[in-house]
Amino acid sequence: MRLFAVPTPDSYPESVAVGPAGTIWFTEKQGNRIGRLAPDGGLTEFPIPTPDSRPQAIVAGPDGALWFTENRGNKIGRITPAGVITEYPVPTPASYPFGIAAGPDGALWFTLSGTNRIGRITADGRMNEFGLAKTLTPYGITTGPDGNLWFTGFNSNTVGRITPTGDVLEFPLPTPDSGPQDIVSGPDGSLWFTQAATDAVGTITTGGRIAEFPLPALECGPTATDGRPPRCTDTKAPYGIAADRHALWVTQHCGGRLSRLSPAGRFSEVGLGGLKAPNGIAIGPDGDVWFALARSNGIGRHRPGSGEK
Predict the structure, then answer these.
(1) For the chain, is the Cβ count within 10 Å smaller at the N or the C terminus?
(2) How far apart are CA 173 and CA 262, in angstroms?
(3) Residue 1 has what pLDDT?
(4) Secondary structure letter of residue 272 according to DSSP
(5) How far is CA 279 from CA 241, 249, 298, in A?
(6) What is the rounded distance in angstroms from the CA atom of residue 6 to the CA atom of residue 113?
């Protein structure tokens, strides 16, 4: 386990993505910057032109640039590998763009959590939006193995699918108020998503079959010497999710750990040595697990052992 500290204090690293030439890119939600971590460990920060834009998610685009959402700035940003930033305003005010994914059509697709829509932007900046009938507060989005975009509805307790032409289908989740957040295409051909409010990870096939896997219970340690119950975090709050060739990796925002989940539903956990609030997560080209540490103001790296590959 290694921590790469962000120079800007209290920057609140939020999301990570793998860029060209093995670079790791990340958003600084409170620092209002985009960060780049080179393979040699050198870290560079690039200020976003819009003040207090609250950059949220980031993803590598098909054009070789990185694309990110500005949640408070109501814009979609693009940054080149050299650090040149271009911003594109979202047409609808107060849309609060959240998640973003590279689509199967060469465009970038993103969620608009404030207006319950899905947005699409081409590499040259042309943008359009699609309304959602049932989804409330769409958060995560990813491209599925079926060539469609899949997204979560945090406040509607749904997972949705949108085709590249804009047709939408929404699936209610079995557990009420589970808070579906991040979503990724898994190694088994299904979609996997975090359920932040119920400490679980869910999966849905492209045909709509859903299963849910609760995270293992917290181990709080022995009872305090004065007879009071032990104090421990009562929730793990699974947040980000990423997939390697064999399994899913999940950050526990409140639990302060990483979870590894096999497609068969078997969990194992990795402690972070006191590092706090892991959020977004990505898998590097060499299999390393990279994650943003919001409260430890850095980017973490975990190199899986032989039993985790």
Answers:
(1) C
(2) 21
(3) 85
(4) -
(5) 9, 12, 11
(6) 28
Distances (CA, A) of 108 to 22, 67, 99, 148, 239: 21, 8, 10, 12, 22
* Residue ranges of domains in the chain: 2-210+234-308
Domain 2-210+234-308 CATH assignment equals 3.90.1860.10: no
User: Is the pLDDT confidence value at 224 over 90?
Assistant: no
**CA–CA dist 53, 46 (Å, integer):** 13
CA distance linking residue 297 with residue 273, whole number of Å: 15
Residue 258: C-alpha distances to residues 101, 185, 278 (Å)? 23, 18, 8
**CA-to-CA separations, 98 to 25, 40, 93, 269, 296, in angstroms, rounded:** 17, 30, 14, 27, 22
The burial class, CB within 10 Å (0-12 / 13-18 / 19+), for 239 is buried
- The answer to whether 190 and 263 have CB atoms below 8 angstroms apart is yes
Q: Which whole-number Å values give the CA distances from 56 to 113, 126, 139, 303, in the listed order?
A: 12, 21, 10, 25
Whole-structure pTM over 0.90, yes or no?
yes
Name the pLDDT band for 234 (thresholds 50, 70, 90).
low
Residue 123 clears pLDDT 70, i.e. is over it: yes
Q: What are the structure tokens assigned to 287, written together?
A: 């299999």
Residue-level pLDDT at 306: 63
Long-range contacts, 230-233 (Cβ 8 Å, 24+): none
Q: Which residue has the tokens 């103001």?
A: 297
